[in-house]
Each structure stands twice: as C-alpha cells, then as structure tokens.
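Researcher: Here's a chain I'd like modeled. Treat it as a single chain, no partners, no ligands.
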Amino acid sequence: MRQSYLFTSESVSEGHPDKVADQISDAIVDLFLSKDPEARIACETLTTTQLVVLAGEIRCKGVYENGAWAPGAQEEIEATVRNTVKRIGYQQDGFHWQTFRFENNLHGQSAHIAQGVDASGNKDEGAGDQGIMFGFACDETPDLMPATLYYSHRILHRMAQDRHSGAAPFLEPDAKSQVTLRFENGKPVACTAIVVSTQHAKGYDKGDQEAELHAYVKKVVADVLPAELLSDATVYHINPTGSFEIGGPDGDAGLTGRKIIVDTYGGASPHGGGAFSGKDPTKVDRSAAYITRYLAKNIVAAGLAKRCTIQLAYAIGVAKPLSLYVDTHGTGSVGDDKIEAAIAGIEKLGDLTPRGIRLHLGLNKPIYERTAAYGHFGRDPDGDFFPWEKLDLVDDLKAALA
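Model: Modeled as a single isolated chain. Structure tokens:
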C-alpha cells in the first residue's frame, strides 16, 4: 500500500438529520429490548420539517403480539421519539420536539423471515439476512481507529458538549466536520485541511459574531488534534457557505442508515453496505460488524498487525458464517491464514453464529441509542455499552499463535 498520501474522513453531529433518524431508530430498539431481550426490530425513521415517521417490522412480547399493540404501547413509543429529539436539542420553529407531527407505521414481522431466523427443533437460530460485514483496526490512534475519522468525530463531540453545557450558546444541533491528514510512511504527520460547518444562532454569519464562531472552532480543533499535526499551513473552511441558520430536519430530510461510512471507519476500510441503527442484534449487519471490529481491534492490540481488516459472510436463515477472511495488509507478524485459524480455535468465541456473537458480546440489551452518533467504533467500553471495544481477547490470540 502507498506510504505517502493525503486522506480525508468526515463526521456529522447528533443533530444532523440522518443522525436524528438513526438515534430515533435506536431509541426504539432500546425500548423494545428493555421489554423483551428476544425482540425483533427493524425500525426505519424519516425526519423532515415538523414530521417524524416510523416504519418497519417488529415482534416484541408484551408490546406487539398477534398483530395488536398492548395498551399504552404506542403512547410510549411516541414519548420515546419526542424525548430523543428533546435530548438532541431541537426546539426550533421548523423542528420542535413538542410539536412535530408523528406517525407510527411499525407492524408485525414477516412470518417467512421469522421461520428462517428463529431456532426450532434441531435448527440453530439463523442469520437475519444475507450479507458481508467488515471490521477494521489500525494503530494510528489510541483507540485503534483511522486518525482522520477519530479526529472528525471528536471535533463535533466537543462542540456538542459545549452546546449542551451552555459554553457555546451560539451553536445549534446540526453540524459536519471533515479532516484531511498527510501520511508519510503510513503515519499521519500533518493536518492539511479542516472543514467545519455548524448550524448557528442568528447573526453569527457576519462581523464580530462570525469572528467569535470561527475563533471558537479553531480552539476546539487545537484542543482535539495533537499540536504536532497543526501548523500555519493548515487550511480552515468554517461554514464555507456563509450562513447556516436553518438546519436539521427542517433544512434537509433525514433517513436511518444513510451515514454508514461515518458510523464505521471513515472510508479507510471496505464496507459491506448494511447499516446498523434500527436493527436488533439478530441482524448480522449489526452484530457481525461488531464482532469483526472486536476481532480486528484485539489483533492489532496484541501486536499481531499494524492494520487489520476482517470479513464475515452470512446467508439468511443459516447460522454459521459462510466465510472468514483476515487481511493484515502486509503488516502482520504472522501469516493471515494463521490468524484465521487462531480465531476459529478460540473456544470462548464459539463458531461466530448470530446467537454466539450476541452471547459473547452481550448484545440483547438496550445499549444502542448511544452508538447512533459519533461512531459505533473507537468508543470507550462502559459497563454493558460498547462491549465490542474491549481488549479481552488479546491474551487468547497471543496464546493461540505462540
């Protein structure tokens, strides 16, 4: 692979319309899993001016059974949606958590899908869909994530913290960032460009108030990026269109699952194409993507490679994966085939079936709304949250390859 190049990744804030949709969908996943750990959920969300629409398929004991909603269930769903939008911070004329119109078009899961996924008799639980999933890790940052995405996320997360705390009252929820780094010998050595577009209060697109906003963004960047990456040569594009007062779902419609590169590795790794949010963990789009990240991260943390990509493939209704592929991009200390064999031989991992993945990572819990902004990976494991970021497989991998 090339050793000297420019590379760019982007992130979007929790207030971006697509991310609003992702968070709503995952809030619904959490709600149903809190009622029934074996719930089946496929929830899509549409957001636009003063409107939120849910659509999809569900099965959940005590909430939706035999084609009917339990008493109070639909009211609880609407309250969950409104509270999610309130937490994000939308109370604007064009999108307000109290006053937007709400439609719930969720309905029962297809019996034909259910018969393929559910365990029965001697049949193990099958994958919820066919597909290929990729996991990735590299040694560019402490969290073993691509540096361009790592810093793009952290710029927006810091801005959101300041907005919520009142430290930056001129910020509104919608924002995007983009970081371009120059790499030499495969390592980031300089930041050549920063793009930050943030929704703002009225008047912060001109004069002293615009200067205040620009100075604030540059300070956030300086706080987030290592000083050695920034210089007078770094080019900043802050709100390059000029004004950004109208944002969020009022400025652009949002849909669940449209930010799959932001959610994963910022373009530094292949992507199988499946989104995460709104899906319960029987869907291998989600659970298998989490286990491949877990495996790749532990491989890099164990010193077995500097970069690692892992692919798993599944067929709907079939439990065991069709294939496992490891690529350390020429950085491995042992052969990729040996790492594949080591993964297959670690007893506590099991055979990477959907049920095995869920049991190993503890995925049948309401842990997903927190994943739906600022990336599903490169996050700190915290109790039940982000278990795929744990490094508890390092010793097993080292022992298997000793």
